[in-house]
């Protein structure tokens, strides 16, 4: 029998990938010409290993989501146990099951204020689409169907479903399609910009304002001082619901349960995904306040006409419960605060070493480094990413709207020594490209 070598396996997989797999957010031409950049086979802690045996630090937790780190076998055991017991059942038409009930109750212990009721989805895009439909339904049953517009911030990212795409404040995602959903508007990140939009459109036409506590894909942008306190006040004064998109920030990423808690306000709705399962199963959701839940229950005649096949998947719920248990039992949020401080100090050190680093920022294990471009048409970030890759580090550059930013969100269990390795590789890579 012929032995399958890593080289022959890679060659086979590359050809199959090029022919049959359409990659998300990737260059189709690049895939056709070069094949996939990585074919990963294993993960452990903060590391990924590819088909060629290369071991790489995953400094973005893949897609900001592998919070507890790769290779947690206890998650697999829980998933297997649940699949063997009850692989799937619908939650439509009043049906339910224990894993999703337990998870909904557990999430209510994590959320701020009175956000205690969750509608489950398969991911973040669906969570935000659900929120948009729900707030419009809410105003409709209250006798104000004209309140349907959604306002978001420029450079925000809310997903790629039709509503989520239409809410996203990064232009490249919107211009991908030839038609967007109506009634979405975008404002600069100032309270004055929101006030101006309300005056222009009319408060009686606006259903909700949505924002990430810290913008992720838009460049790891922290809000201006006092921003969300003013936004909460403006929303209250104008009878506008406030949605906090916690898909990236939720479940400990920023050093608190939810990112919005850093700013001393409570939203009406939280949308979540990623960190609830640390990527071990697809799951998302919309969490609403008791007030909204009560009003919707009292005023909605008939069904809540919205749902996904996997709204409340038993295995995903069991995985989420185990993931949240790990975060609590291993005190990972407290650890995020400690190593997050180390990461930011490391970024400050990098800035001191490199005069082309113009800004660094971070909160918990969510951080960014902004690089000065040589020219407007020549971002340096992608070259730094390529250099870091040679040195064993996977990181991401953000170049939207003239930015040149390196984004970081390593897995929660990263050690002090591993953080030092990451910082040193980033510094060496910036110097090499410079």
Describe this structure in words.
The chain has 434 residues and is α/β, with parallel strands linked by helices. It folds into 2 domains: 38-68 and 331-433, Aspartate Aminotransferase, domain 1 (Alpha-Beta Complex); 74-329, Aspartate Aminotransferase, domain 2, CATH 3.40.640. The protein contains 15 helices and 15 strands. It has a 7-stranded mixed beta sheet with strand order 4-10-9-8-7-5-6, with helices on both faces. The chain has a 4-stranded mixed beta sheet with strand order 1-2-3-13. The protein is globular, with a radius of gyration of 22 Å. It starts with 5 loop residues before the first helix and ends with a helix.
In short:
The chain has 434 residues and is an alpha/beta fold.
Features of this protein?
globular; Aspartate Aminotransferase, domain 2; alpha/beta; 434 residues; Aspartate Aminotransferase, domain 1; 7-stranded mixed β-sheet
């Amino acid at each position: 029998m012929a032995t399958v070598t890593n080289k022959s396996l890679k060659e086979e997989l590359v050809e199959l990938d090029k022919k049959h797999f359409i990659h998300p957010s990737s260059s189709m031409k690049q895939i056709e010409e070069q094949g996939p950049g990585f074919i990963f086979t294993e993960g452990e802690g903060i590391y990924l290993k590819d088909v060629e045996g290369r071991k790489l630090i995953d400094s973005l937790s893949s897609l900001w989501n592998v919070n507890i780190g790769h290779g947690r076998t206890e998650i697999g055991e829980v998933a297997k146990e649940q699949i063997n017991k009850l692989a799937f059942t619908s939650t439509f038409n009043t049906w339910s099951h224990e894993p999703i009930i337990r998870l909904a109750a557990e999430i209510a212990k994590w959320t701020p204020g009175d956000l205690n009721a969750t509608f489950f989805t398969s991911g973040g895009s669906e969570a935000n689409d659900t929120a948009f439909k729900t707030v419009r339904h809410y105003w409709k049953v209250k006798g104000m169907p004209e309140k349907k517009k959604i306002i978001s911030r420029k450079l925000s990212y809310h997903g790629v479903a039709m509503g989520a795409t239409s809410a996203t404040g990064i232009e490249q995602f919107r211009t991908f399609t030839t038609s967007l959903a109506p009634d979405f508007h975008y404002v600069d990140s100032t309270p004055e910009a929101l006030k101006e939009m309300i005056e222009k459109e009319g408060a009686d036409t606006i259903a909700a304002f949505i924002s990430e506590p810290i913008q992720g894909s838009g460049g790891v942008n922290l809000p201006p001082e006092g921003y969300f306190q003013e936004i909460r006040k403006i929303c209250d004064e104008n009878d506008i619901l406030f949605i906090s998109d916690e898909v990236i920030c939720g479940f400990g990423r920023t050093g608190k349960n939810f990112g919005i808690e850093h700013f001393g306000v409570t939203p009406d709705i939280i949308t979540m995904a990623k960190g609830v399962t640390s990527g071990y199963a697809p799951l998302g959701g919309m969490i609403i306040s008791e007030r909204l839940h009560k009003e919707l229950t009292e005023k909605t005649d008939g069904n809540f006409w919205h749902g996904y096949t996997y709204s409340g998947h038993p295995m995903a719920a069991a995985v989420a419960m185990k993931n949240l248990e790990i975060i609590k039992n291993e005190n990972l949020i407290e650890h995020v605060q400690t190593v997050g401080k180390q990461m930011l100090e490391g970024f400050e050190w990098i800035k001191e070493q490199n005069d082309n680093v113009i800004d660094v920022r971070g909160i918990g294990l969510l951080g960014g480094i902004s690089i000065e471009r040589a020219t407007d048409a020549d971002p340096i970030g992608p070259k730094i990413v390529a250099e870091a890759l040679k040195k064993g580090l996977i990181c991401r550059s953000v170049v939207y709207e003239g930015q040149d930013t390196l984004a970081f969100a390593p897995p929660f269990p990263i050690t002090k020594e591993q953080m030092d390795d990451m910082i040193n590789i980033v510094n060496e890579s910036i110097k090499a490209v410079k």
